[in-house]
Amino acid sequence: MDDKFLNKKVDDIMQSIDGIKRASPRPFLFTRLDARMENEKNIWATLSSFVAKPVVALICICFIVIINAMVIFTANSPSDSLTQQGNELAAADEYSQVSTAFYEFENPKP
Predict the structure, then answer these.
(1) What is the pTM of this model?
(2) Are 84 and 78 in contact (CB under 8 A)?
(3) Are 15 and 21 a contacting pair, CB within 8 Å?
(4) Which of 20, 56, 101, 108 has a 20 to 30 A CA-CA distance from 71?
């Protein structure tokens, strides 16, 4: 009896999918989606399109190279090295302390 009941249920389930049709989107759905994506411009899209221009990229690269050259040439000036050397000596004097270890204790016995 259980086998007949299960077979009937399986047959009912299999027959329920006989009238199924393939789902299709509404007309012009993809056209509407494309139009909406083209109209949607956020700040990042605008900024990236501006920075991607070759003239802007070249100007930015030149600006970075000029700043790096200025840093390199001003860092090697002799007046700065004397000041830096004096600051290093002052810092070394500040941190020079006589340190003793805790295990070095005086022996009270003669």
Answers:
(1) 0.35
(2) no
(3) no
(4) 56
